[in-house]
Design goal:
Keywords: DNA damage, DNA repair, DNA-binding, Glycosidase, Hydrolase, Lyase, Metal-binding, Multifunctional enzyme, Zinc, Zinc-finger. This protein is an alpha+beta fold. Helix 3 crosses helix 6 and helix 5 crosses helix 6. It contains six helices and ten strands, in the order H-E-E-E-E-E-E-E-E-H-H-H-H-H-E-E. It has two domains: about 120 residues, N-terminal domain of MutM-like DNA repair proteins (Alpha-Beta Barrel); about 130 residues, Helicase, Ruva Protein, domain 3.
């Protein structure tokens, strides 16, 4: 499942390609909206709200999409061959004289009245990359159910919007606890630091699809903006996610993996305290 930084960057690329330009091509390949024709309308802006994408279009319309596990938006130059999957996986096409945005495998695609956008996103908690970011509210939301495992609480977009499996696993590692520890068992001050670290990591990574949480040399802290260049030989981008069986960068214990699909977790049994599945 794409993280909030990926969705934010996707929105920025779509905005650069479509905003301020009139649509000359419009094709929504879902039964409910297959007859909708947006050609002749100007795209006003494209913005991210958590993991949701909102493409606002002249005339009070919003195209709402969500990538979930396998969806993506690709932008192509006029006349360029579309590459992102077979044609039967295309769910949306929006184009102007210069650029064409193609949405592949979009599990959520709906055309709304812009005034009704809240119907799609009002359930979301504070957006880690949004103008509404409110760390105090995010912490209160997380602690509202103290018995809930940390991983579940972080993934619940009603608590705070933008965290997926990658950041869930990385944040638990940085806090030195497993994703299954009840969030109420965290020592005083740790939930606040957890939320602050989440915000910092997404901010640092929102400009690139090559996400990085490691700082290069310090296994106890998140990556920083002074080390965003190419990795040195042997350096890793992530502490635990996707590193099953490899040694922990902090203690050398083999990283473990649990779950699958949209609920996968990675952790180090050597230096992360708390229950395991």
């Amino acid at each position: 499942m794409p993280e909030g930084d990926t969705v934010w960057l996707t929105a920025r690329k779509l905005h650069a390609a479509l905003a301020g330009r009139t649509l000359t091509l419009s094709d929504l390949r879902v039964p409910r909206f297959a007859t909708a024709d947006l050609t002749g309308r100007e795209v006003l802006n494209v913005t991210a709200r958590g993991k949701h994408l909102l493409t606002r279009i002249e005339g009070g319309l919003t195209l709402h999409s969500h990538l979930r596990m396998g969806g993506s938006w690709r932008v192509f130059a006029a006349g360029e061959r579309w590459r992102g999957g077979p044609n039967h996986q295309i769910r949306a096409v929006l184009g102007n004289a210069d650029r064409t945005a193609v949405g592949y495998r979009l599990p959520v695609l709906e055309l709304l009245r812009t005034r009704d956008e809240d119907r799609a996103v009002s359930h979301l908690g504070p957006d880690l990359l949004g103008s509404d970011w409110d760390p105090e509210t995010a912490v209160r939301n997380l602690l509202a159910d103290p018995a809930r495992p940390i991983g579940e609480a972080l993934l619940d977009q009603r608590n705070l919007a933008g965290i997926g499996n990658v950041y869930k696993s990385e944040l638990a590692f940085l806090a030195r606890v497993t994703p299954w520890l009840p969030i109420g068992d965290l020592p005083s001050g740790v939930p606040e630091r957890l939320v602050a670290t989440a915000r910092r990591l997404l901010e640092l990574n929102k400009g690139t699809f090559d996400r990085r949480t490691t700082p290069g040399g310090n296994a106890d802290g998140p990556g920083d903006d002074r080390r965003r260049g190419p990795l040195r030989p042997g350096e890793q981008r992530l502490f635990v996610y996707g590193r099953q069986g490899h040694p922990c960068l902090r203690c050398g214990t083999a990283i473990r993996k649990a779950g699958r699909d949209d609920r996968v977790s990675y952790w180090c049994p050597g230096c992360q305290s708390g229950p395991a599945p």
